[in-house]
Amino acid sequence: MSSTDSKVDKTRKGKGKDYLSPGSSLSLSSSKHWAGSGFSIPHDSVLDISEIPPLPAEIDIVQVPWWTSKRFQLSIICFFGSLVAQATRVCLSIAIVSMVADPRQSSQSVNTTNSINYTIIEPHHTPEGRYCPDVEKVDNIAGELHWNKKLQGLILGSFFWGYLLLQLFTGWLSARFGAKRVIGLSFIGIVLATMLSPVSARIGPYLFMAVRILLGIFQCTYYPSMQTLWTNWSPPHERSRLLGIAYAGNALGNAVVLPLGGILSRYGFDGGWPSVFYVIGMFSAIWTCIWLIFCYDFPSNHPTISTEEKKYIEFYLGIQDTATKRKNPVPFAAIIRSKAVYSIIVAHFCANFGNYLFTTQLPTYYKDVLKLKTETNGFYSMLPYLVLWILMLFAGFLADFIIMKNMLSILNTRKLMTYIGMVGPGLLLIGLGYMECDQHAEAITMVTLTIGLCAFHMSGFFVNMSDITPAYAGTIMSISNTFATSPGIIAPYIAGVLTTNGTRSEWQMTYYVSAGVLMAGSLFYGLLAEGEVQSWGHVHHIREEEIGLAVDDTTVKHDAKSINKLSTDNIA
């Protein structure tokens, strides 16, 4: 053991003020401050709250309150950004219930304006002979568009064709031009595409598909850019909480838009369903203005951030000057060889298969199998995502609590959260397939728990990409999201093919497929996941004068040999 290591070990044992190492999964997003520390926490080590380094004397923690901090305010802005982004994505799922004429309708119901009144339809019975009245007999809502199930599946999945197209480049875009600029420009396109949706749908299904593809292209920048943004704003020990708040808007977006869409589809202007797109487009425009005014890429760029909070964030991120960080080449060869990256990609793909199946098909399932009315459909479609939103906030705090209280290591915490968020929903989907049309309470409870438990994987594999490679989290997100977007195309199409007649047995087969995908993904992640920063996960270029670490008012300096060895190991 070197003399430096001895000094560090004495400090760790003597006063209990432990420090992060480059091998710890809560290590910092730049290696400028930490890379030469010489600490040696073992692989998959447990990180205790005492291992978070103490603040320097010049930073007063009392002056950095959580609830009034700029990083918390930024997470709230991102929360609403996730909400409106998800709303523009999923509003079609509830609107299409009223847009499209039921293919099972009698041809006698067709009138001269090419719209259909839901009045004539065959009754539905359970295998036990119990009668389930069809909702269309009560709703009497006209569907003006004649799209069969397969075409509907293609239209519902068309958003993801565009979403997939530019995923590989979005991490680079946000790193090169800044998350503020990339997201701001993208949302201008999102607003326009959302507002044009009703007109294009009435002109023809393929024009509407083209608009949905454009919507996907504009929206694909959002989550990779969020990863880039929070790499610059979130201290590692607050990352789960801040990202949990920011991404929780995704779940609330579903919870808000589904009941709102149901109400607007029945009582809104311009025939009902078009008002869904117009109202959501308006709120998206408002958020875009807020984002461009109040968001900044770095704490050092924020005009009203306190000096204490700026120093607090930069101390824990190891960034001396975030505004002048060096641009570094992305280590694509190392990324391709990393089993930790593959574990995230596979888990992300499989989790999104179940997520996109419900996001695009839940209102249709409620209509086909449970025979719910339009307004009731929207309300019950909201409940699972309301629970998901609450559990996303809870899961982030729970993950940080488990780690900081020394209950589980970073890696095992991520695995636990992933198992809860994927195996649990898989088992519930199997049970859901057996629910009949008169078992509303049981089916809705299972749907709610299935979607709600997915919150936990957001603090599992999803946060794990920041654990293993803080310097390139946006790039990893872009790569992972490229593969994880394809289920948005596949899942709606499979559902459309398997549920041609909308029977319970057809939906049961769909849920079996989804359950198998979820469980396989969690198993793969459990076998290959990593919890610590990878050797290539830090910024490589380190100047000798930037390497040092305060230990009990002393600074441990490393000789040139240690620095050269560190740089060689990182580059390798």
UniProtKB/TrEMBL annotation:
GO terms of molecular function: transmembrane transporter activity
Major facilitator superfamily (MFS) profile domain sequence ranges: 74-533
Database matches in PROSITE patterns: MFS
Localization per Swiss-Prot or TrEMBL: Membrane
Segments crossing the lipid bilayer: 76-101, 154-175, 182-200, 206-224, 245-264, 276-296, 340-358, 378-404, 416-435, 441-463, 475-497, 509-528
PANTHER family: MAJOR FACILITATOR SUPERFAMILY (MFS) PROFILE DOMAIN-CONTAINING PROTEIN, SOLUTE CARRIER FAMILY 17
Residue ranges, compositional bias (Basic and acidic residues): 1-11
Chain residue ranges for the region called Disordered: 1-26
Any one GO CC term of the record: membrane
Entry keyword annotation includes Transmembrane: yes
Record key words, sorted: Membrane, Transmembrane, Transmembrane helix
GO biological process, one term: monoatomic anion transport
Membrane topology: Multi-pass membrane protein
InterPro entries the record matches: MFS, MFS_dom, MFS_Na/Anion_cotransporter, MFS_trans_sf
Originating species: Lottia gigantea
Protein name: Major facilitator superfamily (MFS) profile domain-containing protein
Keyword Transmembrane among UniProt keywords: yes
